[in-house]
Specification:
- The protein has an eight-stranded mixed sheet with strand order 1-2-4-3-5-8-6-7, sandwiched between helices.
- It has a single domain, classed as Aminopeptidase.
- Strand 6, helix 6 and strand 7 form a beta-alpha-beta unit.
- The protein is α/β, with parallel strands linked by helices and about 290 residues long.
- Helices cover about 40% and strands about 20% of the residues.
- The longest helix has 20 residues.
- The structure holds phenylalanine and zinc ion (ZN) (3 copies).
- The site of phenylalanine (PHE) has 10 residues, from loops.
- This is P/Homo B domain-containing protein.
- Belongs to the peptidase M28 family. M28A subfamily.
- Keywords: Hydrolase, Metal-binding, Protease, Signal, Zinc.
Length: about 290
């Protein structure tokens, strides 16, 4: 898989910040900043040759949107999915939570296009609405699929907060949650091992969009750099950063702005997404390594 340039990911974060700033300070469900975020990501994907569709739902009296993107080709009965929630809380612009997952996934999508990837499996990415209100968009998407369509999804990878300013390197535990996949866990762990970054397993349980897929029996995995939890001294020794402080002290706050991102964590996790998608979808030819 290619090494994804983190500067490109940061450029998407700058755009999410500008969108929030121009729309009342957030990118929350039902607010204009959310719709602008969907338009931004969709525009980049369309220009890169992805097939996109915006699927709307209603929640709390407001229309919400999921953005679904398919990379043409690959076995339609063997789908590798990855996703990130695109909405923020109303308190702030949501740059680490979850501009980082959204931007990392977008840049991997653009790398797939640049490589003209011809994978064995079909690749589908999703940007979810209204995660912050209770996994509403991802749940709506999964529930909207006929069981024949759900059965075609081999795996779902979730990326929610991958650039925390005092980062941990967490991989979703296969045994620690419903439908956790050992294959997905090991593919992600394998990437971090290859760059000599130690990881820990974490049980994310029902706290993000993978839970909607897990409920349908779809194998899930993902990475995470930490939210309101506190970094231990053992973790600070192996990962750097500050012991006794939150992984993200700006979690769900107005200060979750572009400065609230650790570039190395964002870079490593974006490269991990690329590695996982390339590996799981299978390179059928075209593209580097
Ligand atoms: N889903 C949480 C949020 O958006 C963040 C989170 C992700 C927490 C993964 C724990 C594990 O606020
Ligand atoms: Zn990189
Ligand atoms: Zn959140
Ligand atoms: Zn989140």
């Amino acid at each position: 898989a290619p090494n994804i340039p983190v500067a490109n990911v940061q450029a998407h974060l700058d755009q999410f910040q500008t969108i929030a700033t121009n729309n009342g300070g957030n990118r929350a469900h039902g607010r204009p900043g959310y719709q602008a975020s969907v338009n931004y990501v969709k525009g980049k994907l369309d220009a890169a040759g992805w097939t996109t569709s915006v699927k709307s739902f209603t929640y709390n009296g407001a229309t919400g949107y999921n953005l679904i993107a398919d990379w043409p080709g690959g076995n339609p009965d063997a789908i590798i999915m990855a996703g990130a929630h695109l909405d923020s809380v109303t308190a702030g612009p949501g740059i680490n939570d979850n501009g980082t997952g959204s931007a990392g996934l977008l840049e991997v999508a653009l790398a797939i296009s640049a490589a003209d990837l011809a994978p064995e499996k079909h690749i589908r990415f999703g940007w979810w609405g209204a995660e912050e209100l209770g996994l509403i968009g991802s749940t709506n998407y999964v529930n909207s699929l006929p069981s024949t369509e759900k059965a075609k999804i081999d795996a779902y990878l979730n990326f929610d907060m991958i650039g925390s300013p005092n980062p941990g390197y967490f991989v979703y535990s296969a045994s620690g949650q419903p439908a956790g996949s050992l294959e997905l866990q090991q593919v992600l762990e394998g990437y971090f091992r290859s760059i000599n970054v130690p990881t820990e397993l974490t049980s994310v349980g029902g706290r993000s969009d993978h839970a909607a897929f897990a409920r349908a029996g779809i194998p899930v995995g993902g990475t995470f750099t930490g939210a309101e939890g506190t970094k231990t001294s053992a973790q600070a020794q192996k990962w750097g950063g500050t012991a006794g402080q939150a992984y993200d002290a700006c979690y769900h706050r107005s200060c979750d702005r572009t400065g609230n991102v650790n570039t190395a964590a964002l870079d490593r996790n974006t490269d991990a997404i690329a590695h996982a998608v390339w590996t799981l979808a299978g390179e059928g030819g075209g593209g580097p390594d």
